[in-house]
Write a structure and sequence with these properties.
cytoplasm; 128 residues; alpha/beta; NDUFAF3/AAMDC; three-stranded antiparallel beta sheet; 3 helices; AAMDC; single chain; disordered N terminus; 8 strands; MTH938-like_sf; Hypothetical Protein Mth938, Chain: A; five-stranded mixed beta sheet
């Protein structure tokens, strides 16, 4: 596991480029990314067993919460094929964390706005 940056009070990294299969943030290039206050790393679906269906799992957002995210943006891919498990949204609600579920381009746009205002986290899927 490679973690780029980390730290209390740090801004979440800005996404400087997004295209099919490629995201640039925090000076690094990713296929899929976990973004959180102070850092970013590759979002490897194999770590939690994530698949398009049933979708983003509660375990996928745990790291974002542990690193201080108070708002989370979940990207469903460019075509919206990636789902989000209801349990994931329930976990975020129980923890008092606002969640936004959007297609990739809109998700990145919102995340870049939110990261300037509050501790933000995102899971960004750069394909389907």
């Amino acid at each position: 596991m490679v973690i780029v940056g980390a730290g209390d009070g740090a801004l979440s990294p800005e996404v400087t480029h997004i295209s099919w299969g490629r995201l640039e943030a925090g000076g690094r290039v990713f296929k899929d990314a976990r973004l959180y206050p102070g850092g970013a790393r590759e979002w490897d679906w194999n770590e939690t067993g994530t698949r398009h269906e049933p979708g983003i799992r509660p375990a996928d957002v745990e790291e974002l919460l542990a690193r201080g995210a108070r708002v989370v943006v979940l990207s469903r891919g460019f075509y919206g094929r990636l789902r989000v498990m209801p349990e994931t949204l329930e976990l975020l609600a129980r923890r008092g964390v606002r969640a936004h579920v959007l297609r990739t381009e809109e998700a990145v746009r919102l995340y870049n706005e939110l990261r300037r205002k509050e501790p933000a986290g995102a899971l960004v899927h750069t394909t389907c």
